[in-house]
Design goal:
330 residues; alpha/beta; 7-stranded parallel sheet; 5-stranded parallel sheet; 10 helices; 17 strands; binds flavin-adenine dinucleotide
């Protein structure tokens, strides 16, 4: 009867709440926790149950000690083994599956970063769960809000999977703070994994500028900079402000800067305190990556450019005149 169905589903909800617990995959590089993982840990605390954090790789112990001092983390699980370096999805997914099984976690979370986007779908497939990607809000333990159509619509998704596999949009949640005490750190015996791929090497673009995804100030240039030399105008202003450099896809495609700088639907999602868009028209695909910035400044020679519709401050004029003058005056 409908009555008995209601009763059993209500009972299921109560039981699932009592047993609810989260497992967060913590990203790290050079012994530093990836800032986005701090936001993901915060999101995990919203479920109310205990939060465990998984840290994997060689020397993972050092990062684990930092994670143990984060607010809301009840336990850190360490897989201290060089096999987990470079976060290859086919190696990390079985590890995550083994740890999820040991911890009985009902919610497994990672950042919606290139790493999280690589590992979690494989893990979700291993445990036969449907991943919920890029969440910006947690309504309850099974209901989440996520942007679709480049952020033009918000979708509310309810999952009936026993284990929820979730990637988190870091800009939508604050970061966990540190605490005075340290939570326990536990070793996990890594499962036997045979990788079909080998890590050969990586080319990392080194720079003194802050990381684009977590910078407080971002200065971005668009097609209008016209050249690699023109893009230096953007870099100089960013350096003066101690900010990160971003770009529109048109600037990236034209080869004015590296594609790791792309902001937007197919680039990075940023929400700094200050975003300065220079010579960028404001196409929806670009807005999808920056419209949640606290203060938006647009510099564009066309007063009717759509970027001015989202800008808090606008400067109409030629960037080649305005930006060097601005940089000098700051
Ligand atoms: P334009 O649209 O050409 O704008 C240049 C602007 O500069 C104009 O507003 C012009 O008035 C102004 N200007 C020109 N000269 C000057 C001057 N001297 N001084 C001041 N202003 C000047 N785009 C992204 O940015 N990020 C994405 O992630 C992204 N993903 C996409 C995904 C898909 C599936 C598709 C179809 C498109 C995507 N795009 C993305 C592309 C997007 O649609 C736009 O084409 C792109 O953002 C335009 O870049 P722009 O604003 O630099 O160039």
């Amino acid at each position: 009867t409908s009555q008995s169905i209601n009763f059993s589903s209500a009972l299921g909800r109560v039981n699932s709440r009592a047993l609810l617990s989260s497992l967060v995959y913590v990203e790290h590089k050079n012994k530093i926790i990836d800032p986005a993982s701090l936001n993901t840990l915060y999101a995990a605390t919203k479920f109310g149950g205990p939060v465990s954090a998984l840290v994997a790789g060689s020397d993972a112990q050092q990062v684990a000690a930092q994670v143990a001092q984060l607010e809301g983390v009840e336990k850190v699980i360490v897989a201290n083994n060089p096999v987990f370096d470079h976060e290859r999805a086919e190696i990390m997914a079985p590890l995550l599956a083994a740890v999820q099984k040991n911890t009985n976690a009902t919610h497994v979370l990672a950042s919606h970063s290139s790493v999280g986007k690589r590992i979690l779908p494989r893990f979700a497939a291993l445990i036969d769960s449907q991943q919920i990607s890029d969440i910006i809000e947690i309504q309850n333990e099974s209901t989440f809000v996520r942007p679709i159509y480049a952020g033009n619509a918000l979708e509310t998704v309810q999952s009936s999977d026993q284990i929820k596999v979730i990637t988190v949009r870091s800009t939508a949640f604050p970061q966990v703070a540190t605490k005075d005490s340290a939570s326990p750190i536990e070793d996990t015996s890594a499962p036997e994994v045979s990788a079909k791929s080998n890590w050969v090497g990586e080319e990392v673009i080194k720079g003194d500028r802050p990381d684009l995804a977590s910078a407080k100030i971002v200065v971005s240039g668009g097609r209008a900079v016209k050249s690699v030399e023109g893009f230096e105008i953007i870099q100089k202003l960013a350096d003066k402000l101690g900010g990160a450099v971003g770009a529109s896809r048109a600037a990236v495609d034209a080869g004015y800067c590296d594609n790791s700088l792309q902001v937007g639907q197919t680039g990075k999602i940023v929400a700094p305190n200050l975003y300065i868009a220079i010579g960028i028209s404001g196409a929806i695909q670009h807005l999808a990556g920056m419209k949640d910035s606290k203060v938006i400044v647009a510099i564009n020679k066309d007063a009717d450019s759509p970027i001015f519709q989202v800008a808090d401050y606008g400067l109409v004029g030629d960037l080649f005149t305005i930006v060097p003058e601005l940089t000098e005056k700051i």
